Amino acid sequence: MLLETSPLGLGFGIFMFLLIIVLAFAPIILFIWVIYDSIVVQKKMEPIEKLIWIIASVIVPLIVPIIYYLLVKREGNYLLGIEGKKLQGKETKYDKLEKLHELKEKGVITEEEYQEKRKQLVDEL
Questions:
Q1: Tens-place pLDDT, residues 72-101
Q2: Other C-beta atoms within 10 Å of 7: how many?
Q3: Which residue range(s) make up the domain with 33?
Q4: Judgement on whether residues 24 and 65 belong to the same structural domain of the protein
Q5: What is the DSSP string of the chain?
Q6: 110 Cβ partners below 8 Å, 6+ apart?
Q7: pTM beyond 0.70
Q8: What's the CA gap between 124 and 54, in Å, rounded?
């Protein structure tokens, strides 16, 4: 009855109700996403760092998940592929395989040495 007599009308009341519902559930959904992503998806992240992200997203539930997305997901800090590791200056097993192949092509190492080292690197993958 109150909304029907309000100058803003019923539409505004429904809009405000939906807005409140979205704002109430958004932090919960974002918190669950941070927990899932940091524990299940980000396998290379240190356990203490996972804990920090989760605790921070409880304390500041709307801002921390956005920061988490910008720092972890967009930057690809933990799900780095071969290219990401090269950008960080870390040599991956794939880089070592490439160098090993180049050494064999240049004649620095023999075919037997190449096969032995290659097998070691592939077994580590």
A1: 776 665 655 444 444 455 567 777 888 888
A2: 5
A3: 1-79
A4: yes
A5: -HHHHSTTHHHHHHHHHHHHHHHHHHHHHHHHHHHHIIIII-TTS-HHHHHHHHHHHHHSTTHHHHHHIIIIIITTSSS--HHHHHHHTPPPHHHHHHHHHHHHHHTSS-HHHHHHHHHHHHHH-
A6: 104
A7: no
A8: 32
